[in-house]
Amino acid sequence: MSENVDTKALLRLMAWLSPAFPIGGFAYSGGLERAVHDGLVRDAAGLGGWLSSLLRHGSLWNDAVLFAEAWRRSGDEAGLKDTAELGLALAGSAERHTETLALGKAFAVAASAWPHPVLDRLPATVPFPVAVGAVAAAHGVAPASALAAYLHAAVSQSVSAAIRLGVSGQADGVAVLAGLEAPIIETSERASLATLDELGGAAVQAEIASLRHETQHSRLFRS
What we know:
Layout: H1 2-16, H2 32-37, H3 44-57, H4 59-72, H5 77-89, H6 94-111, H7 118-121, H8 128-138, H9 143-164, H10 170-179, H11 181-192, H12 204-213
Helix pairs in contact: 3-4, 3-10, 4-5, 4-8, 4-9, 4-11, 5-8, 6-8, 8-9, 9-10, 9-11
C-alpha cells in the first residue's frame, strides 16, 4: 500500500513540475537574460557557475527555505499567509515579484485538478515556492524529494532559457544539468531542515541583473 501511495505522489510531483504544466514558467528567465546581455554569463561553464551560486547563495536558496516552511505549515492557513507575505516581500525586483506571484497563482489554479482543502488555505496572492510546498505536503510528498524536484525544474527552466539565448547548445545544457545534481541534492536536503532564520543570500550580481532587466529594451523574457 505504501509503495502505491509513494508512486502516486511521485506521479503528481512529476506532473506539477513538468514543462507541460500550465503555469507559463517558460516566459521567465529570472534575470538570466540580462546577465547574458551584460556578459556575466557567456558559455555553459558560466551558466553552471551562475546557477550553482543561485542554489547555494541566491534566490533559489531563499525559495527552497520558503518552500520548506510552506510544507511544514500546509495545514495552517494563517501560517501560509504569513509565509506568502514574507516570500513576496523578499522579491528583489518588480519583475521577480511579478514572476513568483504569477507562477504561484497559476500553479494553484492548475493544481485544482487534484482537489484538496489545502488549495482553500492558500492566500490569493501566493509566491510560487509557497504554493508548491504547501500542495506537495498536502499530497504526502516528502520535503527533501519535493524540494529536489522543484529546484531541478527551476534549473532546467534556466538552462532552457540559456539555450534560447545562445549561451549553450542542447548537449552542453544537459551537461550543465548533470553537473548541478550535487548542488541540487545538497540544497534540497539543507533547506528541508532550515528555518526562516536562514533566509538570506549573497548573489548580488544576480539581483542587479534582475533589476537591470526591467529597463532592457529588447528582450525575449518577462524577467
